[in-house]
Amino acid sequence: MFHKLFFYEADVPWILRRSTRTFKDPSECTEELITMLKVNTQVLCLMQHQLCEQSRPFEELKIGYFNQFAKCHIKKLLDIAVCLSETVWSATHICPMLLAYEALMDVLPLIQKFASSESDDFFSNILRNMREAFRKLIGHIKHFIQSNMEKHLDDVAIHPMTCFLICSIKSFGSHRNLVQSTLAPGDNSSSFGHLLYDVITCWKSVLTEHSNIYRADLQRQYIFLLNNAYHFNTKTDGLLDELLSDRQIIKQHDDEFKLLFKKWTESYTEEACTPAKSCLNPNCWWGSQRRSLVAFTSKFNKTFDRQKTWKVPDVVLRQIASGDIYTTETLETTVQGFFEG
């Protein structure tokens, strides 16, 4: 019976007989490789289990017999594992990489039981390859942000690289245990929290540098920076603390963002509103008050005309900006001063 079940190639499931030679770039066919890796492993586990369940005696003999039969199929699994661990992943392949590594961590313990003849170093090397590839991916992400930051359309409030970074962080969040405990463990400079903080710092730096395309219009520059910073904070709120994990890094990140946000908000208010507000002087005589109102209206309309096509998508950010420009109380006091004068 063993001879019929395990030595005729026609009786071997098709998925085990499928060749991997057609896969030239693993990053472009990750889903197929993951399927082969997981399904083949489960099929082999099931076949071994069925063999051992047929009769209890001679279990060691049957396992040895099975391993000899499955030798070429086990080698195929090892080849896929090595291939995925050695693949160079681009910044646009974060999700496929993480899915591949999750699959590897699931099946490697099972494969290791089949491939008992392989040394422990073989499987340690796979893990080492994964960690090295992950560190390279972090570098690729930073380079991707730097090289694509200049590609910006004037009518887009949120830069595509801000959206890319948010999506990347959400992908890492979906595989938090993998990235923190397996791919970049520890609490030193090579830990995931430090690596992610470096990516965010890189994004802030190149975003600020890129905003200089608006240096002829500082109001537009500060709105651009505020839009992106606020969008990033809103979309990563809560998740980022879990990923950075280290309290010191979290505090440093929060303090830096608060400082930048305060600086950009105050600078925008100064550039956009001070010229118009400076025209309002309730302490001058009536004729001068009228001229100051005319001047205020003129400068306000000029600012409005320039900014009316700008986009501030976030409602809360709009409220913060308008609150810094004026409050109901300050406006009422200013207007009342004109009438009382």
UniProtKB/TrEMBL annotation:
Q: Which SUPFAM superfamilies match?
A: Cullin repeat-like
Give UniProt keywords alphabetically.
Exocytosis, Protein transport, Transport
An example of a Gene Ontology cellular component annotation for this protein is: exocyst
- InterPro entries documented for this protein: Cullin_repeat-like_dom_sf (IPR016159), Exo70 (IPR004140), Exo70_C (IPR046364)
Q: Name one GO biological process term.
A: exocytosis
GO MF assignments: phosphatidylinositol-4,5-bisphosphate binding
Q: Which Pfam families match?
A: Exo70_C (PF03081)
Tell me which domain of life the UniProt entry assigns to the organism this sequence originates from: Eukaryota
Report the residue ranges that make up the Exocyst complex subunit Exo70 C-terminal domain in this protein. 34-319
What does the similarity note say? Belongs to the EXO70 family.
Known role:
Component of the exocyst complex.
The protein in question is named Exocyst subunit Exo70 family protein
